[in-house]
Amino acid sequence: MRGLATVALLAYLLTALGLGFDRIADADPRLANLVPGPAQVGILEERADRFVEAGVPGSALADAELLVRRDPVSLHGTGLLGAARLGRGDQRGADAAFRIAARLGWRDARTQLYWLRLALARQDHARAALHYAALARQWPDAPAIINISALFEATAAGRSALASRIAAGDSWALAYAAPPEGSSPQAVLNHAKVLGEAAGLGRILGCETIAPLARSLVPIDPAEALRVWRAHCPDEGFGGLLHDGDFRAARPDASLGPFAWEFAADGAFDLRLEPEGAAARSVVTRNDGAILRAFAAQRVVLGQGGYRVWLKQGSSASLLFASLSCGRDRLAAQPVALTGMSANLEFPGGCPAPWFQLWLAPRGQAQVTGLRLDRL
Fold first, then answer.
1. What is the per-residue DSSP string for 209-263?
2. Is 70 a domain residue?
3. Which DSSP category does 179 fall into?
């Protein structure tokens, strides 16, 4: 009995050792040779995965088949088998493997992607969006998600399906609103279209969430950038063509987004917003410098022509100047003095998203409560 127990214990230890080496061989491939054949599971999965990722999935077939035989409930085994069979042109066999993978719990990315593509081929965009949501929820920042989303964004029906998922409250919407650095202009534009539609369905992401997308879209399509910005950062204020004309969302230290107020970080200015936390606030500022300087700026999207800027309320308006120009320096801006509470500005064109700026005379101080910009 002792001999049998000893043999059993040694067999158990050898099996455990083999399985242990199989698991750590992923991190150190040199250990693969120490893993007994029957214990090779992780090694088979890693090798099959390498073939699939290298774009030669058919070469993974032998490893994938052996993996499924040794570990029938492997998290990724049946998905790898399906991909390998697809690589060999065995559509029927691949479909059978992916069906089993689906029954194991939808935890494999390749399985989700297979059924996503099949649903799109059948024009079942709602079901395809469910599979996309599962992928985006698990890997929201993966570069491959951009490529997968392009499958939907290519058609109006696909974009509507994604917008519906976002409107339903899917958490991956936050990552979708911030495409990875290096995304193509078309990908950024497509995301804006989907998010604009989602806003129309009632899902408002807010100014801070939509700011990165709107900012990256400005050089591509300023008008579309403004549309998606206003859709997710709604403004019911006084501003007309200006955003946040009552300064309720303005920040004295940083810009909230590409169409939000920016304030001068110039030592010549003493500037504050008051009262704190109010629905409508005033910009109170003083120019201690010796030259005319801009203290507030906002990018706007408009065409060539005449415009009128006017104050809802203000003090020392005679010391205030305004400008509408592509360049922000004084020579390009050609500031115009406000007569009383308003001024007429002429924008000659030259750029789709010029800067509106407010200027203050040297040694002057002013309080601005509410600004509006309208076309003449």
1. HHHHHHHHHTTT-HHHHHHHHHHHS---SS-BTSS-TT-SS--SSS-SSTTS-EE
2. no
3. P
pTM for this prediction = 0.76
Question: Residue 359 contacts by C-beta under 8 Å, 6 or more apart in sequence?
Answer: 292, 293, 294, 295, 320, 321, 322, 323, 330, 333, 335
Residue 201 lies in a domain: yes
158/313 Cα distance (integer angstroms): 48
Task: Give residue 291's domain range.
Answer: 262-375
Same domain, 277 and 354: yes
Torsion angle, alpha carbons of 73, 78, 79, 80, to 10 = 120
pLDDT of res. 39: 46
Does any domain span residue 312? yes
The residue among 183, 216, 234 that closes a domain is 234
More confident residue, 62 or 42: 62
Number of independent structural domains in the chain: 2
Measure the CA–CA gap between 318 and 366, rounded to whole angstroms: 9
Q: In this structure, what DSSP letter does residue 180 have?
A: P
pLDDT for the residue numbered 336: 95
Tell me the CA end-to-end span of the chain in Å, nearest whole number: 103
